[in-house]
Write a structure and sequence with these properties.
single chain, Aspartate Aminotransferase, domain 2, Aspartate Aminotransferase, domain 1, 2 domains, seven-stranded mixed sheet, binds 4'-deoxy-4'-aminopyridoxal-5'-phosphate, four-stranded mixed sheet
Length: 426
Amino acid sequence: MDNAGPQLLTQSDELRKRALRRTPGGVHSNVRLSGSQDFIKCARGAWLYSVDGQDYVDYLLGQGPNFLGHAPKHIVDAVFTACRDGVIFGGQHELEVRAAELVCDAVGWADMIRFSMTGTEAVQAALRLARAATGRTKIIRFEGHYHGWLDNVLMSQRDGKWGTASSGQLARHLEDSILLPWNDAARLADALDEHGDEVAAVIMEPIMINAGVIEPLPGYLEAARRLASEYGAVLIFDEVISGFRLGLGGGAGRYGVTPDLATYGKAIAGGFPVAALVGRADLMDRFGTGEVNHSGTFNSSVMATAAVTATLTSLVEDPPYDRIAEHGNALMAGLREIGAAHEVPLRVSGLPQAFHVSFGDAKVTDYRSLQQLDLARYETLASSLVEHGIWVTGRGVWYVSASHGQRELETALTRFDKALTEWVAQ
Ligand code: PMP
């Protein structure tokens, strides 16, 4: 007989029971169906605290936005102060002018900007603008690159074939997409050779952070730039993750290749929900003339533009990039050392600002070669990491923020070592 007595429910269990009654799957974004189901009480700096008293060193950072750490005081204060005088006007205000200037100046090559709430919307605006400007319909995009959850961009691979990723998603909305392996300039050249006069845009993450944090091969972005121009297609960099994370100039700045349009989000606003499309004036002005529609009740709200203004001001005045690189490099090296000590083929690759952890030693340059790694094995380790107080997901992408310091480094490495010791012994 089991005499352990009744199992006590944790506060997270109780909340989850309530959540499941009113919220499908207990979550408001399907991305969160997997991963820890602990409820978070609060977050400060690089730390999350659950309702049950567990603390976590956070390397997920809300899927990227908390680039300056959780609830940076100067950004939260700026938003609260600004919102006391009104939240949304249905009219223009000074903060949105300031925010637009700051982002365009920081990005460097961008003439103009339109704010939206989500990266998904910014991508849609970019695609519509590219189609309007070229009078063409097709979009070239790449395996493993994520551009939001809407019907015309969401894709996944099932049984070796790429297609819709959701029940209810109409396959015909993907008919104008030409899907290619990334980092292969010859394949891109061939596709443009075949379909060039139909292609409105080539869209890619300039560094494929969503799948494996894979950098572009030397010369690849340059080739994409040259080919897009040659065939009259609009080159769109989806910098929703890389923007401001890799530096003020994002991926375009890091790799020295300038797109025609770029989408931003996440790190642009200290955790607040803001995204943006930036680009060349001759393209962007099509919104201004009213020729191309781009709308949104909440676009450029006081909250959004106060958050962007405070974030960009601090990125310019007190650039966190060296600090982040120092922490990220030390963390990557520490994880590798622990993996080696346990004699497991732990693979840590990418950049200190965002890196990927998995198992295997394949040479990875695109989504296909990424599949040679043992991604499923890392997923089981990720659950164990969360149990030991490191907040990550099974996708293997770790983000570093400006508020990760020596204490976080030591705690994370100690916890990683402990988690790996137990996981190896299982
Ligand atoms: N583009 C990229 C590269 C992204 O990573 C994401 C989200 N992870 C999006 C677009 C969509 O952004 P959002 O979730 O804000 O709609």
